[in-house]
Amino acid sequence: MKIESIELAYVKILDVFKDKTINYLKTLDAAQIDEVLSNRDCEAFSTQWTRAYSEVDKVKQKENLTEIYRKQGAKLRRAIFLEVYNITLSGIMASYISDDFGLILDSLVFDYKDGWINSLWSQYIRRKIPQGKLMPTDITIEL
């Protein structure tokens, strides 16, 4: 992905987070946050998340990462983490969601195609927090 595209991906992903996720997070109470966290810790979700992260990380290791990519990736994760934490007061929820959006950015930047990551993205597009068993989808991530 070109540098201009990395910056554009950052902006568009952050826009989706602000438009689709923030208002949903504001509706959750402590019990609902705990339920989401439990559903994300279940084997069906965590196994797939770890698999997708590991596969994208292998692709990243082969690439010569540009400074602009490093800055944009860190900036995206930080912005999302802080916003989620300020709304939910849950560091775990903030970590999970910021890591999700970081994984989505990485998959776009490194042109890694994965049906499960597509499903992760589609949950956010539908104003949901991904959790439990996600079914892989061929619907690709479009920004």
TrEMBL record:
The organism's place on the tree of life at top rank: Bacteria
Name of this protein: Uncharacterized protein
Organism encoding this protein: Clostridium aciditolerans
Source lineage: Bacteria, Bacillati, Bacillota, Clostridia, Eubacteriales
